[in-house]
């Protein structure tokens, strides 16, 4: 890839170099074709869309289409739009000083036409990098036609002594200033309908008209948009004529496989810490973090039309690591393992990333977050371990696989742990439970004492979520696992105290 702009500085030198002008859609199409033939990764950092979204993007670009990405929040819509710059040429010649990046071969604004007529091949040019040719606008209700397209500038008219009938008094908006590039509008439904109408000519006739000027200025643009499929904030809609003019509509989605979600979270989360405490997050724990998002996208407490952003799992992993890091700083350990207590300590990363329905509001954000953690543990435990219940005929009882563990608790023992306990003490408290270490080692593939502690707690929490063990909160940061029947007879709740 060329890192320095070409040497041509005038139109004559540009012609002598053999440069052939192309429209932006031709340019993007031809560069995409070259990338496909070379086997290059088309959208680096975009995970899980290879068989769904990316083929539709390729089709839209190959068809010279303007397009819109429809998807709930946190589905990489903006990242995809910004990645389109990779299909622009590294450098593009434009008339030097032109506000709308006019082509030196066929300028469209009055000032550049006059300069070309006067200077001919001596017309000065400048080179625009691909990043200079992408602009985006977040649609808000206060965006005006002047912001997007332009208006008459009375100050320019006064200082240059021009009449309002002169084309050079126009102050161009952000769309004309992106001429010969890619312009993106995020959250398109938020634009007022009368402003959306102003985009119709750009999409269909490829020109703009400002304040009734008789001149029509043809623009060379690739227009792309993003929007939510359901306007969950009830702020507006895309008007039908505009939707009709957007040639391709591409629907995004959340990760279809939990491995894709894990890859996205690992890619985006800030995990390289510098406090002298190494935080280790095992694979099953990362899977648990993604499972919480899966459960949130199915929960009756969460507004599903709003969606659950991938930002939730990213923030959750970061907070889990911070909670573990904080424990390591207090205990003086240089390496710590993520625990379930760290997950409960990170509920602030869940509550702010989900929209609750009425029932969820009644429960409260913290309780819903803990409920989702419990659901996530239950689902992951079901995938990693034998079924907690064994059914014989019409009767259901605890699976014999867990009999040594349950017998230990039935004998009156209690396993009590704290979120601030050093790793050795934490492991020792849980290793007392008969058969627990063997279960964790076999099904979660862990071996060292530091790894076994959190894995053993996960087993106990999984059994609790399947209602074969009781868990009670002793005080802030300390929990105790007990036999279910003894808890019931002693008046303690058998269910998840966090959810009550």
Overview in brief:
This protein has 500 residues and is of the alpha/beta class.
What features would you describe in this structure?
With 500 residues, the chain is of the alpha/beta class. The chain has helices spanning 11-16, 24-38, 53-62, 77-83, 110-119, 145-148, 154-159, 193-197, 200-204, 240-245, 258-268, 283-296, 310-331, 340-344, 348-351, 358-363, 365-384, 403-410, 423-431, 436-444, 449-465, 484-489; strands at 67-70, 91-95, 125-129, 134-138, 150-152, 170-172, 181-186, 207-208, 217-218, 221-227, 248-251, 278-280, 335-337, 389-392, 395-398, 415-418, 470-475, 478-482. The chain folds into 3 domains: 11-251, P-loop containing nucleotide triphosphate hydrolases (Rossmann fold, 3-Layer(aba) Sandwich); 254-384; 398-500, Orthogonal Bundle (Arc Repressor Mutant, subunit A). The strands form 7 sheets. It has a 5-stranded parallel β-sheet with strand order 4-7-10-1-11, with helices on one face. It has a 3-stranded antiparallel β-sheet with strand order 16-18-17. It has a two-stranded antiparallel ribbon with strand order 2-3. Helix 12 (283-296) packs across helix 17. The longest helix has 22 residues, at 310-331. The chain is elongated.
Topology:
Blueprint (H helix, E strand, L loop, with lengths): L10 H6 L7 H15 L14 H10 L4 E4 L6 H7 L7 E5 L14 H10 L5 E5 L4 E5 L6 H4 L1 E3 L1 H6 L10 E3 L8 E6 L6 H5 L2 H5 L2 E2 L8 E2 L2 E7 L12 H6 L2 E4 L6 H11 L9 E3 L2 H14 L13 H22 L3 E3 L2 H5 L3 H4 L6 H6 L1 H20 L4 E4 L2 E4 L4 H8 L4 E4 L4 H9 L4 H9 L4 H17 L4 E6 L2 E5 L1 H6 L11
Parallel strand pairs: 1-10, 1-11, 4-7, 7-10, 12-13
Antiparallel strand pairs: 2-3, 5-6, 8-9, 14-15, 16-18, 17-18
Helix pairs in contact: 11-12, 11-13, 12-13, 12-17, 17-21, 19-21, 20-21
């Amino acid at each position: 890839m060329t890192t320095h702009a070409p040497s041509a500085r005038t139109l004559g030198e540009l012609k002598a170099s053999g440069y052939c002008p192309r429209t932006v859609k031709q340019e993007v199409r031809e560069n995409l074709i070259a990338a496909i033939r070379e086997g290059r990764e088309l959208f680096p950092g975009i995970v899980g869309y290879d068989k769904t979204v990316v083929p539709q993007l390729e089709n839209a670009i190959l068809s010279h289409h303007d397009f819109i990405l429809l998807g709930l929040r946190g589905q990489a819509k903006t990242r995809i739009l910004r990645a389109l710059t990779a299909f622009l040429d590294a450098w593009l010649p434009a008339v030097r000083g032109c506000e709308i990046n006019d082509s030196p071969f066929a300028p469209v604004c009055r000032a550049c036409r006059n300069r070309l007529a006067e200077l001919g091949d001596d017309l000065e040019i400048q080179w625009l990098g691909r990043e200079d040719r992408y602009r985006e606008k977040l649609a808000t209700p206060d965006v005006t036609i002047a912001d997007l397209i332009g208006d008459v500038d009375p100050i320019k008219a006064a200082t240059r002594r021009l009449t309002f009938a002169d084309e050079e008094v126009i102050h161009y908006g952000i769309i004309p200033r992106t001429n010969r590039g890619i312009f993106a509008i995020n959250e398109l439904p938020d634009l007022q309908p009368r402003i959306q109408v102003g985009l119709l000519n750009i999409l269909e006739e490829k020109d703009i008209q400002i304040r009734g000027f008789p001149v029509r200025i043809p623009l060379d643009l690739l227009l792309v948009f993003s929007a939510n499929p359901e306007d969950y904030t009830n702020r507006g809609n895309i008007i039908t004529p505009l939707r009709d003019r957007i040639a391709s509509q591409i629907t995004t989605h959340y990760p279809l496989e939990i491995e894709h979600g894990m890859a996205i979270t690992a890619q985006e989360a800030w995990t390289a810490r510098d406090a002298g405490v190494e935080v280790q997050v095992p694979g099953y724990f990362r899977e648990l973090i993604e499972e919480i998002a899966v459960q949130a996208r199915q929960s009756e407490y969460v507004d599903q039309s709003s969606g659950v952003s991938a930002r939730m799992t990213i923030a959750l992993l970061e907070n889990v690591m911070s909670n573990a890091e904080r424990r390591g700083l207090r205990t003086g350990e240089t390496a710590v393992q993520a625990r379930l207590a760290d997950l409960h300590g990170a509920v602030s990363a869940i509550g702010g990333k989900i929209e609750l329905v009425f029932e969820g509001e009644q429960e409260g954000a913290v309780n819903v977050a803990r409920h989702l953690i419990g659901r996530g543990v239950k689902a992951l435990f079901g995938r990693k371990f034998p079924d907690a219940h064994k059914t014989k005929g019409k009767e259901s009882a605890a699976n014999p696989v867990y009999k040594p563990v349950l017998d230990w608790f039935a004998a009156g023992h209690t396993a009590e742990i704290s979120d601030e306990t050093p790793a050795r003490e934490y492991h020792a408290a849980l290793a007392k439970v008969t058969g627990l270490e063997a279960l964790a080692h076999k099904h979660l593939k862990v071996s060292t004492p530091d790894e076994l502690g959190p894995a053993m707690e996960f087993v106990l929490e999984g059994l609790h979520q399947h209602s074969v063990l009781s868990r009670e909160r002793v005080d802030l940061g300390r929990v105790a696992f007990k036999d279910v029947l003894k808890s019931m007879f002693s008046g303690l709740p058998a269910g998840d105290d966090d959810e009550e």
